[in-house]
Amino acid sequence: MNGNNESDLFREMMADVAPIAHDTVEKVSQPHKPTDAQLARQTAAQKLSDSNPEYLSLDYAEMLKPDDVVTFKRPGVQDGVFRKLRLGKYDIHARLDLHKYTLKDAREEILTFLKQCQRMDVRTVIIVHGKGERTNPPARMKSFVCQWLEQISDVMCVHSAQRHHGGTGAVYVLLKKSQDKKLETRERHLNRRA
């Protein structure tokens, strides 16, 4: 077949097809504004992390064993990010050692430490809770610390540390980005696209 025959055949086959009136995407001139429900959830999450430590229970925690590996990841955390945390590939910018703390003091110290880290834009920290092999019940502090970290909304993921950082007696913690860092990242990505 030559080009004219193909063209004629195509026109004949498309004779009853109507063209699309508008096939471009309109740009939205106004930026996204959060809904009232989104604002309410954001406020509730901020109140939870800014409130007193009483919401972190001292009464009950699912008990772990001294050598149990701790792992926790919130939905939305990328697998690659979690893998790097698990393998200890992120630089540790702050450390909290809870040896010789009571549960109540440890709870308050963890909240204070994590809030301070967020204010300073520190995202990766290590918390040393010990294995608790000689406590009764075993791994008491470890069990409570791990439960608390899951309840703190600013904690994105947690994993037991590598052996050279304390092994199962410590956990790596990845914190949520501060609002300033989120804006900075968003602007950097928008500039790349432009």
UniProtKB/TrEMBL annotation:
The UniProt keywords, alphabetically, are:
Endonuclease, Hydrolase, Nuclease
Output the Gene Ontology terms for molecular function: endonuclease activity
Keyword Acetylation included in the entry's annotation: no
Any matching Pfam family:
Smr
Q: Supply the SMART domains for this chain.
A: SMR
| The keyword Nuclease appears for this protein | yes
The record's annotation in SUPFAM superfamilies points to: SMR domain-like
NCBIfam families with a match to the protein in the record = endonuc_SmrA (NF033154)
What is the recorded name of this protein? Answer: DNA endonuclease SmrA
Question: Which gene specifies this protein's sequence?
Answer: smrA
